[in-house]
Amino acid sequence: MAPAPQKPTLKVLLCSPRGFCAGVVRAIESVERALAIYGAPVYVRHEIVHNRYVVDSLRAKGAIFVEELSEIPDNDAPVIFSAHGVPRAVPEEAERRRMITLDATCPLVTKVHREADIHFRRGREIVLIGHAGHPEVIGTLGQLPPGSIHLLETLHDAETFLPRDPNKLAYVTQTTLSVDDTAAIVELLKRRFPNIHGPHKEDICYATTNRQEAVKRVAPVVDAMIVVGSPNSSNSQRLKEVAERAGCPRAVLMQRAEDIDWDFFSGVKRLGITAGASAPEVLVEEIMGAFAARYTLDIETISAAEEGMFFPLPRPLRERESVG
């Protein structure tokens, strides 16, 4: 019997940190804990996090995902607000309907909401740096009366924006943006409006920053980069962009091993792998397993930061947990 042909070697550089952040862990555990306490169904407004695998897993356990509260019948089932945050009108509507609500908004998004509210109360006009249509941006814009916050997406937007009073101006940002892109927009705003007020600590979250930094270290020394994540995940999309800008000749966003286009990886000798903050590690392992079937993997982890952040569950779930 002829020996099996030897598999070629593939050097794999694993970015660290990657995958779930503390806010995502908190949001997913909020749904699972609510299911354990209240039983199915538990309603979730919008995808709890932007990952199809996670959403499908929770749906199988009894979570029902809706886009608006109007889709939820009048019953005693709780409704959970996703990690991205919601406009203020949403909890107000839920209160009018006497719904049981659980707020799984990431605490770092809540921080941005509070900053915007403080600026508003101090009479400042506010600009929000972010991507139109993203649920986090919709939620932040919806914290204050219409016209209080202006969305800036690009350098051009920052160049042409005209405030009512340049001395009464403040900015906040979406938490999942490109660190470099955002820094350029902030720099431009500060140059145009030297008295603009910003956050004491930057709004882009630690997880976004750390994952982008790891990609910047790996991207220049690999032939291709895989970002595990969903197309509607902002932080995953930014990781792909960061890889390309950092010099990676081929970068691709994929959700599962079944998405692998083997022709795309033809000739690759060194492969970088990372995962967006809403992508579970099991999907990274699944994709690496598919490569291991074709290659002998030589795996090295490239670390940019150690993460030990933890966010406790929403108070109603903690209180029920202590009682239970």
H/E element order = EHEHEEHEHEHEHEHHEHEEHEH
Name the assembly state.
single chain
Fraction in beta strands: 15-25%
Can you tell me the CATH topology of the largest domain? Cobalt-precorrin-4 Transmethylase, domain 1
Strand order of the largest sheet: 10-9-11-1-12
Query: Could you say how many structural domains there are in total?
Result: 3
Low-confidence segments: none
| Major sheet description | 5 strands, parallel
Total number of helical segments?
11
Number of strands: 12
Helical proportion, percent range: 25-40%
Distance between the termini: 62 Å
| Rg over CA atoms | 22 Å
Shape by Cα distribution: flat
What is the CATH domain class of the largest domain? Alpha Beta
CATH architecture of the largest domain: 3-Layer(aba) Sandwich
Give me the secondary-structure category.
Answer: alpha/beta
Average of the residue pLDDT scores? 95
Q: What is the fourth-level CATH superfamily of the largest domain? A: 4-hydroxy-3-methylbut-2-enyl diphosphate reductase, catalytic domain
Describe what this molecule looks like in 3D:
With about 325 residues, this protein is of the alpha/beta class. It folds into three domains: about 10-20 and about 205-305, 3-Layer(aba) Sandwich (Cobalt-precorrin-4 Transmethylase, domain 1), CATH 3.40.1010; about 20-105 and about 310-324, Rossmann fold (3-Layer(aba) Sandwich); about 110-190, 4-hydroxy-3-methylbut-2-enyl diphosphate reductase, catalytic domain (Cobalt-precorrin-4 Transmethylase, domain 1, 3-Layer(aba) Sandwich), CATH 3.40.1010. It contains eleven helices and twelve strands. The protein has helices spanning about 20-40, 50-60, 90-95, 105-120, 135-140, 155-160, 180-190, 205-220, 235-245, 280-290, 315-324, and strands at about 10-15, 40-45, 65, 80, 100-105, 125-130, 150, 170-175, 225-230, 250-255, 270-275, 295-305. Helix 8 runs parallel beside helix 9 (about 235-245). The mean pLDDT is about 95.
